[in-house]
Write a structure and sequence with these properties.
- The strands form two sheets. Strands 1-5-4 form a three-stranded antiparallel beta sheet.
- α1 crosses α3 and α2 runs antiparallel to α3.
- The relative contact order is 0.26.
- The chain has three helices and five strands.
- By secondary structure, it is of the alpha+beta class.
């Protein structure tokens, strides 16, 4: 039964995230990303690509949650994307909800994209 499966997708320009980082710095980071996400992204030579990937992931998760009927406001920093030991992205949602979420993230120099699946229990 597919009635309890919801999808979301997003694509973003890496330069848009880079610009927000340069313009708003820590304020932007703390509004969107958890400290673990910031630590992860900042370890790379080009953190903007990784921030963009996580931004697209969060946006796709919000879309999937909203399409499931979830009506509350969703702060981006309450959705956390961590990496498994193998490097796969894992979703931690830090508010009450009734399902499980899986995510896939991709990025190239100019764009980051993500696709999420939210399954109601």
């Amino acid at each position: 039964n597919l009635d309890n499966i919801f999808i979301g997708t997003d694509i973003i320009e890496v330069d848009r995230i880079r610009s927000s980082l340069n313009k708003n710095g820590k304020r932007f980071l703390d509004k969107i990303y958890t400290s673990k996400e910031q630590e992860y992204c900042n370890q790379f030579k080009n953190p903007s690509i990784h921030y963009a990937g996580r931004f697209a992931a969060k946006e796709s998760i919000v879309k999937a949650l909203k399409s499931s009927g979830y009506q509350n406001y969703i702060p981006f920093n309450k959705i956390e994307i961590i990496s498994s030991k193998e490097g796969a992205p894992l979703v931690k949602i830090h508010f009450e909800h009734k399902g499980v979420c899986k995510i896939s993230i991709s990025h190239i120099q100019k764009y980051a994209t993500a696709f999420s699946i939210y399954i109601l229990n």
